[in-house]
Amino acid sequence: MNGEQPADGSRPVALVTGATGGIGSAIARRLATDHHVLAIGRRAGALAGLSADPHIEAVALDLLDLNGMESYIGSLDRLDVIVHSAAVSDRFTIAQADAAEWRRQLELNVVVPAELTRMALPHLRRAHGQVVFINSGAGLRSYPTHTLYSATKFALKAVADGLRGEERENGVRVASVHPGPTDTPMLAGDLRKADREYESEKYIRPESIASAVRLVVDATPDAQVTDLVVRPRVE
Fold this sequence. Notes:
The protein is of the alpha/beta class. Helices cover 41% and strands 15% of the residues.
């Protein structure tokens, strides 16, 4: 089904990366209420669960295969929204991280979303569409022992801010959404590696981040949401 569009073309099309993750899957399901969603991921079981929704097309692709991604995006007839939710978050201090680890995290967290956006721009310009970068609180403040991840998210915000100015005349809207600690397997694994207790009741629900993305996507034509910070009620 790769590249298939709704037969009647009545629904706008949204592509969501990292759709098998906690935040990505919540975003895909929320957008599917009135979009045709292309849910990109690699975990077969999670993709199968998403595809149970008739308005979600689960697509097994490796984001690091940029040639494959370019072929896929180029095959689409329409694309109105792209949401970059895929990311890697591993804790390293400057003293711990070597060049290979820097390249690994920069590749997925910065290079991939920038490249996929470049590939999607012809579609997005025609649609006067929306780019949403799922950033992080770590993209606004750098935290000790998480310096590498913070650096990638600061870079991602720079991509978003520069792109917004570059595409203003083309009608493409660009937003950064900065979730605080969110109840996801990624956060659980991250805290486990740091020997910190995981208290799910204190964290944001993925569905709340999906609601924030809806706020961005549903902005009226005269406006755009550029930066949205979502924090837990109790910190």
